Amino acid sequence: MKDRIVGQVKRVNGPVIILKDVTDASMMEMVRIGEQQLIGEVVKLYDGRATVQVYEDATGICPGDNVYGSGLSLSVELGPGLIGTIYDGIQRPLEKLMEASGAFISRGISFPALDHEKKWPFVPKVEVGANLTKGMTLGEVVETERVVHKIMVPPSIDECVVAKIASEGDYTVEEIIATVVLPDGKEQKLTMVQHWPIRVPRPVTERLALKQPLITGLRVIDTLFPISKGGTVAIPGGFGTGKTMTQHSIAQWCDADIIVYIGCGERGNEMTDVLREFPLLIDPRTGQSLMQRTLLIANTSNMPVSAREASIYTGISMAEYYRDQGYHVAIMTDSTSRWAEALRELSGRMEEMPAEEGFPAYLPTRIAQFYERAGFMKCLSGETGSISVIGAVSPPGGDFSEPVTQHTKRFVRCFWALDRALASSRHYPAISWIDSYSEYLTDVQPWWSQHSDGTWQINRQRIMELLQKEVRLQQIVKLVGPDALPDSQNFILEVCSLFKTAFLQQNAFDEVDRFCSVGKQVRMLEIILGYYQKGSEAIAKGVPMVKIRRLKVVQEIARMRLTIENDDLQAFDKLQLRLERSIDQLGGIYED
Amino acid sequence: MRTKEETLLVHTDRHLLSGREYRGTSRIDGPLVYMRNTHPVGYGELVEIIAPDGSHRSGQVLDTSDEAVVVQVYEGTDGLNLPDTGMRFLGEPLTLSVSEQMLGRVMNGLGKSRDGSTLPQGAVEKDVNGEPINPTAREYPRDFIQTGISVIDGLTTLIQGQKVPIFSGNGLDHNKLAAQIARQAKVRKSGADFCIVFAAMGVKYDVARYFIDSFEETGVLDNVALFLSLADDPSIERTITPKTALTLAEYLAFEKGKQVLVIMTDMTNYCEALREIGTMRGEIPSRKGYPGYLYSSLAELYERSGKIAGRGGSITQLPILTMPNDDISHPVPDLTGYITEGQIVFDRSMQARGIYPPINCLPSLSRLMKDGIGEGMTRGDHPHLANQLFASYSHVKDVQNLASVIGEEELTSLDQQYLEFGNFFEHKFVNQSFTEDRSIEQTLDIGWEALSILPSEELQRLSDEEIAEHYGK
């Protein structure tokens, strides 16, 4: 690869390099610059010149240095061994880099993304003579305890006949596991590895409706603002409002099969936290370590800015690969604002005309292209799989009117707005019930009805109405004080306040509370609404609100999220019984 | 197209050519000098500038092409002219010669002695730009640093290897607080080898003097390396000062195993200097005229803190920045908050009420606190107690707003208890003297004393056992 010189450096301006005497470079081609062999990508071609963005620190590159072409677009390597590995923005394995260059990342080193030495147990699933089309399964490899990795016919082969297939046994990813004959009679040898250009979506058969919710275990999300499998959501919030914590929680407890976590321009210590914590956490559904379903990309804020731009494409390409195998994948990007800023920085260095706040005019197009790669798909193999995208947005100054938040809102259907006032009072997750919305409500409503004896939609609607009423009542209280309200209205404030502490707040560090099952959510909501119902009736009979509020059972409701286990639904029945009895007793005293 | 042999020749030539002196520049603009007709010069190379009076200055290549080279001169361009200014391109990036003997010395932003005395020549040359730490090589910080200041130890706990900025405003006591932290900070579990690296960017002489005096008084001066680039030094020097300081810090922490506290003041001046250069080069600005790469530039500094697995030391950063017009959404504090692991926010009204340190705990945050407190580290009740104090104090703010509308007399008795709690919290828990060094147990006990003002059923974030053990005691 080193021999094909595509041009010479003319000018160096940070991560953007202009080449002269360009012969046969093509757009988006991956190139190597200078004797240090720094990785770059061609982004513009004109008049015998080319603009290249460099994925590593450009120090030391001189005008006159040779640039070598690779003939390939910037691609990811796909095959067994992706799960559990941590990569940088251009899919270099960080652990390998550490072995080679120590604790600090030196320049110009590269490794294949997959371990080419390791042997995987391959089990063939087709026989010689089988007719296969693109995306169909040739065989399987157990990648981790919970993921069976399907080795598929690459999308570049439309149809073929299997001429040879490896027998069951251990193979490295480089060894040939099948030979297929194409319709024109040519033979092609296949290994377990595929390469795919990161900026191109992998093909699917068709997009399906988004009927299933992605259960995250966070009550405020699942009950109030649900997201579908295959859906897209933005989490905007100023610094310190808990974007990363919310994403960590979802990555840990949501019911996706595979998690792709992209740390895009964020803190190094946070990625270390994920690396340290995930292997120790046990998935409540399978009883296995969470690391067995997680792929990590860490391009921290001090790593090169071009690689940050590439990181989200690298991540979603890997996600699509697992979707094609029929898995439900959830992808977290933390944060898309850093990615947009990388675009802005590169655009500025290329001296392009800026649009809003210095961002390039193509920002909305790029955001749309990224989010449209999500969806619930019928894959080429005939199986269904999905990619849900959960993108954090970091608006400057916490101001949601800035370009990245606004454009993202146009292309996502669910919006979980984080609120600074909630975060300051340590109400976590600080998702505002006023500014957030979900357009997936009607899509997932049938599913929820099935899982809640049909009460979910009505109960959700009732609590949302109460929360809206509370906002208006709070305005009155701010003007004239709470004593001016009648008890019936004060009780609404009381119920909403209980709902916030007992239901909306969730402690990510509490063993019981950090994940809330669907059944528990349904029962908790019912109990709080029951409290409102019974309490209102009692107040109508003349019971003072203070008396209801002081009932011991109300304290128990406030703590039920911490004290009652996910599967212990009987405990909720008992609690409900106690609640009804206590309020009835009070009512009995005042009835006469 | 060159052949391989020719390429090799170019490289040997370049090696020979580095060090060759060129005379006559084509343009001088602020801190930038343009020079034509040089040999191919590498991006980011170190440049030695020879002024017409024979003095030497240093600079760095900002932009290089086969037509011209743009060099920024760290000592400023005063006295340079077009025909007689010379330049040598040294073929290597800007390095700092580091040694442990730099502790106890006062240097300028480039790491040269400020008083003219010679610095001991270090054995190791380090690239001041550093390299990013591989995330897999990091060790997650979880050792609690006791600062002796209740509101920090109790509510925004500092962890060894963390970066926490102080968001302050002009005229507030941030220097006093930084000096107090520098004096009192200790890791309780070990007799750690502690030292301080202090970087001053564009601060006034008196401020620098204040720090030197306070280090001297407490006898730690021998353990402090000071890099001063004062208000009357060229503004461009400010862009390199924190990098130089952090280069020494990395050496001390990761090669000598020391626990390094880096105090950097004032980050706003660093950003102003970046804006100045960006504007001078005609770059496309983003918010408030700051360059689009401000986030990356700040990240390259802040991310140089932390711990590396298997190497004893750590770098804890305490950058200080003054928020222009006390505006926390200004680009400098805003971008900083997105990179650092929390923030300590000052409040002008608290200072006006005579509370020191004037820290408003509600917007303040320590992201690494969760793993550094609790049983075995501070005390078992610490996490819930901190949580409860935040929640209760946040309610105090609502009550105060209500009271300003309807008057204190109209408040319910519960809300009046909240006001009393708020008062105690601000004056007894937050407020302490400059010389007061509270242990974490003292801090937590004062916190319980404050919460005991409220009825116990209001304390929903604490467990029954914790209430039974500490409430009202």
Structure report:
- The complex is a heterodimer of chains A (592) and B (473).
- Chain A has four domains: 5-73, Elongation Factor Tu (Ef-tu), domain 3; 120-192, RNA polymerase II/Efflux pump adaptor protein, barrel-sandwich hybrid domain (OB fold (Dihydrolipoamide Acetyltransferase, E2P)), CATH 2.40.50.100; 206-441, Rossmann fold, CATH 3.40.50; 456-591, Orthogonal Bundle (Bovine Mitochondrial F1-ATPase, ATP Synthase Beta Chain, Chain D, domain3), CATH 1.10.1140.
- Chain A contains 16 helices and 26 strands.
- In chain A, the strands form five sheets. In chain A, strands 8, 18, 19, 20, 21, 22, 23, 24, 25 and 26 form a ten-stranded mixed sheet that branches. A six-stranded antiparallel beta barrel of chain A has the order 1-2-5-4-3-6.
- Chain B is of the alpha/beta class and 473 residues long.
- Chain B folds into three domains: 4-93, Thrombin, subunit H (Beta Barrel); 97-370, Rossmann fold; 382-470, no CATH class.
- In chain B, 34% of the residues lie in helices and 22% in strands.
- Chain B contains 14 helices and 22 strands.
- In chain B, strands 9, 11, 14, 16, 17, 18, 19, 20, 21 and 22 form a ten-stranded mixed sheet that branches. Chain B has a seven-stranded antiparallel sheet with strand order 1-7-4-5-6-3-2. Chain B has a three-stranded antiparallel sheet with strand order 13-12-15, with no helix packed on it.
- In chain B, strand 19 (306-308) and strand 20 (314-322) form a beta hairpin.
- In chain B, helix 3 runs parallel beside helix 4 (205-217), helix 7 packs across helix 8 and helix 11 (382-406) packs across helix 13 (440-451).
- The mean pLDDT of chain B is 89.
- Classes of the chains: A alpha+beta (592), B alpha/beta (473).
- At the A-B interface, strand 1, helix 1, helix 4, helix 6 and helix 11 of A face helix 1, strand 5, strand 11, helix 7 and helix 8 of B.
- Strand 1 (5-13) of chain A pairs antiparallel with strand 5 of chain B.
